[in-house]
Design goal:
- By secondary structure, this protein is an alpha+beta fold.
- Among the domains are: about 130 residues, Sandwich (Immunoglobulin-like); about 80 residues.
- Helix 2 packs antiparallel against helix 3 and helix 5 packs antiparallel against helix 6.
- The two termini are about 45 Å apart.
Length: about 400
């Protein structure tokens, strides 16, 4: 795994496919970073940035490979230059002889001073007859037919699947010199090393090269880190790849229990507790059932209700943060996450200038609901709290909505 923080955060992986000869292996170096790490300049009707990636592979004091790659990015608006998600993907194939090496990476923003570097040891496997490649997390792939070419691939360097956006978790795998009847057994293990999904996949053979795209429904996996393990039927050796299922970079959800803490305004406490009490080996099935039950539009592959709920959490965190309290956990945040945008919102003015911003009023006409937030100015930052009567009205409405 490649990971570099600081002013230029970069994440990536190195995966391996068979080369054109028994003494050649293709190493796929994949990196991702955000647009906002680069310096953009106006270019006609859009914005342009350039960056360079330098890859050095050494064995002792001997330089084995040195590759400088210059890339240019164009986006249409300044807003796109500020994206903080995975918006830039870099990938480079390197033909290497099986063995142990040191790999150095340097990513430089050509328009500014930002840079990221990392050095790590790598062991390049020999992928001969009867072996499998390391699985590669992909967004798109067109399998190759011969080992003297490379697959048309858009890798997923973070191996991250976003629930509510992605419906399938895709991994590309190859096999070499396998019989036509060869099948690959696949297991998905959660962070407690419990098998949550099993499957058997047929490889498509073209000459001595076989391949398959392993697609897993995300609703059957759940959330958090998992490991996908693949092996040929009857073979003792296996290959594996990590996957991380989340609701996006802004949440950083890393476990099933952490996911459930976010659902407090989505469903009743009893439904959350039922999921929490589910044994680890049954959580994938329980999550799939929960996904289906809360899906307001089953004709699509997305759960729009859950997707929109997490979007409201992200918006609340931007708007309503109070000191160290996350926006979605404040009084205004929890109402917004539960009910969405108010139909009307404004200040309730007092007669004196000191009282002019002491209250805020939200109206929801659909629910005939009027909520008043009162300012509480203590030693810390200003905080707005629901008045006792508004808190009671809100709680009654929530209980009614959660029983529908």
């Amino acid at each position: 795994m490649i990971a570099q923080n600081g002013t230029f955060p970069v994440v990536g992986q190195i995966r391996y496919l068979a080369g054109n000869t028994a003494d050649s292996t293709l190493a796929l170096v994949t990196l991702s970073f955000a647009n906002h790490s680069l310096t953009f300049n106006g270019d006609g009707g859009g914005q342009r940035a350039t960056y360079t990636v330098t890859v050095d592979v050494t064995q002792g004091a001997t330089s084995v490979r040195h590759v400088d790659t210059h890339k240019q990015i164009r986006v249409e608006s300044f807003k796109e230059t500020q994206r903080e998600d995975e918006s830039v993907i870099f990938q480079q194939f390197l033909a290497l002889t099986p063995g142990t090496y040191s790999l150095s990476l340097l990513v430089r923003d050509e328009g500014g001073s930002n840079a990221a570097s990392q050095q790590l040891p790598i062991t390049v496997p020999r992928l001969g007859k009867g072996t499998l490649s390391t699985p590669i997390s992909v967004y798109q792939v067109k399998p190759r037919a011969r080992t003297d070419t490379v697959p048309a691939i858009i890798a997923n360097p973070r191996s991250t699947i976003v629930l509510g956006r992605d419906t399938l978790a895709g991994l590309y795998i190859e096999g070499y010199g396998l019989p036509e009847t060869a099948r690959v057994g696949v297991q998905v293990l959660n962070d407690a090393h419990v098998v949550i999904l099993r499957d058997t996949v047929n490889l498509v053979r073209q000459g001595d090269l076989s391949s398959a795209l392993l697609d897993f429904p995300v609703s059957s996996i759940g959330v958090g880190p998992v490991t996908v393990v693949a092996s040929l039927a009857g073979a003792p050796d296996s290959v594996q790849a990590p996957l991380f299922l989340s609701f996006g970079d802004e949440f950083g959800i890393t476990s099933f229990d952490e996911l459930l803490s976010y659902l407090r305004y989505f469903v009743s406490p009893a439904r959350v507790q039922a999921l929490r009490d589910t044994p680890p080996e049954q959580r994938a099935a329980a999550w799939a059932a929960f996904w289906k039950q809360t899906d307001t539009n089953p004709s699509t592959s997305e759960n729009e209700a859950l997707r929109d709920y997490f979007k409201r959490i992200a918006t609340a965190n931007q708007r309503y943060r109070e000191g160290e309290v996350a926006g979605w956990l404040t009084d205004r945040g929890k109402v917004f996450v539960t009910l969405g945008e108010p139909d009307q919102a404004g200040q309730q003015f007092g007669q004196s200038s000191a009282a002019r911003s002491r209250a805020e009023v939200w109206l929801y006409t659909q629910y005939n609901l009027r909520l008043i937030y009162l300012s509480q100015n203590g030693s810390g930052p200003p905080r707005l709290r629901l008045s006792p009567s508004s808190q009671s009205d809100f709680e009654k409405l929530v209980r009614r909505l959660q029983t529908q």
